[in-house]
Amino acid sequence: MSDQLNYNMEVIKVEKSRINDVDFNNLSFGKIFSDHMLICTYKNGAWNAPKIVPYQSLTLDPSTKIFHYGQAIFEGLKAYKDSNNDVFLFRPDENCKRLNISAKRMAIPELPEAYFMDGLKALLQVDKDWIPTQDGSSLYVRPFIFASGRGFHASPSDEYTFIIATAPSGPYFSGKVTVLIEEHYSRSANGGVGYAKAAGNYAGQFYPTQLAVEKGYNQVIWTDDNTHEYIEEAGAMNIFIRINDTLITSPTSDRILDGVTRKSIIDIAKSEGIPVDVRKITVSEVIEAANNGTLKEIFGAGTAAVVSPISGFGFKNKDYILPELENPYANKLKKRITDIQTNKAEDAFGWRVKV
Amino acid sequence: MSDQLNYNMEVIKVEKSRINDVDFNNLSFGKIFSDHMLICTYKNGAWNAPKIVPYQSLTLDPSTKIFHYGQAIFEGLKAYKDSNNDVFLFRPDENCKRLNISAKRMAIPELPEAYFMDGLKALLQVDKDWIPTQDGSSLYVRPFIFASGRGFHASPSDEYTFIIATAPSGPYFSGKVTVLIEEHYSRSANGGVGYAKAAGNYAGQFYPTQLAVEKGYNQVIWTDDNTHEYIEEAGAMNIFIRINDTLITSPTSDRILDGVTRKSIIDIAKSEGIPVDVRKITVSEVIEAANNGTLKEIFGAGTAAVVSPISGFGFKNKDYILPELENPYANKLKKRITDIQTNKAEDAFGWRVKV
C-alpha cells in the first residue's frame, strides 16, 4: 500500500461491530453491509481527503441533484481472502480508471487515483473480517460518486460525494440463467452514456427486464437501438458466444461497457488456446448457429455475476436451448479466473493485488 | 379541490417561516425552497397517504438504490398568483399523467392521481405566500419520485419516496440563448427512456452541454443518435422552428419528451391562425432555410424556460444568426401562454386550474 495517504487517513471505528449478527453461510447479494465505509467529498473545486467512518446514513436536502438528475456513477469489484488470511483484489486499477472515464462523461470531477486505491485498501484492512471465505462468496465492494450539491437547475452539481461501501455477498444469480434477446427496447444510444457505469443506465433496464422476467427469462440481451440486429451486452454482464470452437464477443463501443471480467476472460481464453474473435455479432448469426447445431455456449461475464452460463434464450417468441456440454468453456474460464482471484492459482497476468 | 383526501391529510407546519429571509425581487431559479413539502412513501406494495411537513433533509442509507441505479423521475410545473391573490396552476393533470408514464418506463409503481393532485393543491395552500408575483417569477413546483429502497442488486427498488418541493424562482435563462446542433453526442435511444422525465436523461446531457458552453453556446439541440440529421429537442425544452410563416416542431416519440408547454404552444399557435406543422425536421433543411433567408425564428418551449427565443445556433463549426423580427411568433405566443397562466387573459382552452 502506498504510504503517503494512509499515514494521514482519518479512521473512526465503530464502537461495536455488527459482524456477529451475520450468517456468512447464507449470504445473499449486496444486502448486508460491513462496519465501515470510506467517504470523501468534493467541495469548492476540490476533492477533500477521504476518511473511514462507521457505515452510516447520509443526510441530504430534497433538492440534492442526485434525486432529480441522476448524476451518479459506480464501480463494482470484489475482495477475496485466501487460506492464509491474506486479502486480494482483482485488477482494482481498472475500476479506478473506468470510474474516471465514467466521471468525465457524466460531468463529475475526476477522483485522484490515490484516494481510490489507498482508500480502498485501507477500508479493506479495517473490515478484513467481513470478507467471506465460503465457496462462491466474496466481499462485494461498491465505490460510487453522486451529485450531492443542491438546486433545481438542470446543470452539473457543485458538490459530490464519493463512498466505498462493502457487502459480504453470495452469488448474484442462483440457478440456470435464461435470457431474452431484445427486439424493441434499448439500453443505450450512439453518442450516449452506455459505456459509462452511469446510474441511469441501470434504471432504464429495469422495466424491459421486468417484462422479460414475466415471460420467464432472467435477463435481457441488449441489441443496438437502430436495427436490433447486433448483440451488445446484458446490462449487468458482457456476453460471450461460442460457435463451434470459437469464442465471440462484441467489441466495446460508446454503447457497451468495457468490462474488467470481459477483458480478463478474453486474455485467459487466448492463453488456453481458445480461438477468440472480438467482432460484431448478429442475432441472425446466433439463430442460424442454434438451428444448425454449431451454437455451443452463451455466457455472461461481469464482476457481480463472474461467469454465468446461459442455458437458453428467447427470440421472436421462440425459445432456444443451449446444449449441455461435458467440458464447457464457461466452467474452465470461470475456474481459472476465480482461482486467480482467490490466490488458488498462479497469476501469470499480474492481475491480483495483495492488500 | 376534491375533498376525500384533504380532509384527512396530515399537515405539520413550521414553527417559524423562513419567508422573511427571501429577496423576492432577486430570485434565481430553483435555489430557495418554501417552508413545506409534501412527502409520500411507497412500502410493502402500496403508496401511503401523503402528508405535508416542514421542508427538511432526508436520511438515507448509502445502499439506497437512487445513488447506484438512478431510478428516479420528476415533473416540473409552476404556480402563479393573480392580483386578487388567487392561486393558479397550468394543466397540472398533464404533469400527473406524464409522471405515471415516466413511472411505468422506469419500473416505479404508479402514484394515485389524487395523491398528486390533492397533495399539490394542499401544499400550495399552505405555502401560498411563497408564490412570487414579480414579472417573470413564479413558484416552481418540483414533484419527484426516487428509489428509496436498499441493496446493491441491480433491480427495481421495493421502496419509493414521492416528494413535492417548491421554489420561488426567477427566469431559467437570462439574456439571449444560443444553441449548438449536436453532431456526435446523443440524448436518447430508440426504445430507450428519452420520453420519460427520468433523472438519468439529464445527467447524460451535462457533459456535451459543458462542451457547448465552452464554445460559447447555452444549450445543445439534440439530434437522432443514428444519423444526427433530425432535430429532436433541447433537453430542458422542446424546439420550434419557423420557416417563412410556418411553425414546425418534431413529433413526440420514444426519444422526445411530450412537453406540456410544447403542446400548449401548438394549440395557441393554431388558434392564432399560425400554420403549424408537426413533422420530422432535418438539420439540412434548417441550414438551407438559414442560408436562403426563410429561417425566421427558433425558440424553445418548456415549463422552466417558458418560451425562449434562440438568437443563433452553431453547426459544423459555423455560426448562424437568427434575424431580429419586429413581431416574432415567440413573443406573441409567450405573452398568450403566460397571460393564461397568470389569469391575465381568458382561458378558452380550460387549462388554468384555480387552487
UniProtKB/TrEMBL annotation, chains A, B:
One of its GO terms (molecular function) is L-isoleucine-2-oxoglutarate transaminase activity. CDD domains: BCAT_beta_family. Its cofactor is pyridoxal 5'-phosphate. InterPro entries: Aminotrans_IV, Aminotrans_IV_CS, Aminotransferase-like, B_amino_transII, BCAT-like_C, BCAT-like_N, BCAT_family. It comes from the Bacteria. Pathway: Amino-acid biosynthesis; L-valine biosynthesis; L-valine from pyruvate: step 4/4; Amino-acid biosynthesis; L-isoleucine biosynthesis; L-isoleucine from 2-oxobutanoate: step 4/4; Amino-acid biosynthesis; L-leucine biosynthesis; L-leucine from 3-methyl-2-oxobutanoate: step 4/4. Its EC number is 2.6.1.42. GO terms for biological process: isoleucine biosynthetic process; L-leucine biosynthetic process; L-valine biosynthetic process. Keywords: Amino-acid biosynthesis, Aminotransferase, Branched-chain amino acid biosynthesis, Pyridoxal phosphate, Transferase. The modification N6-(pyridoxal phosphate)lysine is found at K197. It holds the Pfam family Aminotran_4. It catalyses: L-leucine + 2-oxoglutarate = 4-methyl-2-oxopentanoate + L-glutamate; L-isoleucine + 2-oxoglutarate = (S)-3-methyl-2-oxopentanoate + L-glutamate; L-valine + 2-oxoglutarate = 3-methyl-2-oxobutanoate + L-glutamate. Acts on leucine, isoleucine and valine. Belongs to the class-IV pyridoxal-phosphate-dependent aminotransferase family. This is Branched-chain-amino-acid aminotransferase. It comes from Pontimicrobium aquaticum.
